[in-house]
Amino acid sequence: MKDQLNQIYKTIKVKGLKLTPARKEVLEIFTNSDYKLLNASEIFDLVRKNNPKTNFSTVYRNLEILLENEIIEKIFFNEETKYKLRNHEAHHHLMICTSCHKTKPLPFCPFGELETYIKNTTDFLPLKHHVEILGYCEKCREKLQN
Fold this sequence. Notes:
Helix content is about 45%, strand content about 15%. By secondary structure, the protein is α+β, with helices and mostly antiparallel strands.
């Protein structure tokens, strides 16, 4: 986790962003969250545990800055906006546990051929796509069966 956090700090500096105390706090929450999805209110509550003077607009503004700089990503889950650290290794799609909110990237992009087809046979130019598969992780499935 510490290595991951240090790598994120380096990325922030490379992008020319300041590493403010509030931003550090938000990033620490993400690296300690076991890749669960968190909404802005949950993040705000966790930040306030360590820094009660932080206001919601500070947290929200930092989320937007981290989102714009591709450090975190926004996910629409159960009609709610959630955030998580971005997987910088490659283009990816997520499998999301509807019970514990744990996320796991799909091992491949299921739309590669479709995107090529669209580019080559239609007048439409796709720029990006996003897939989320909702279901249950192994642990939550076991809980449901018991």
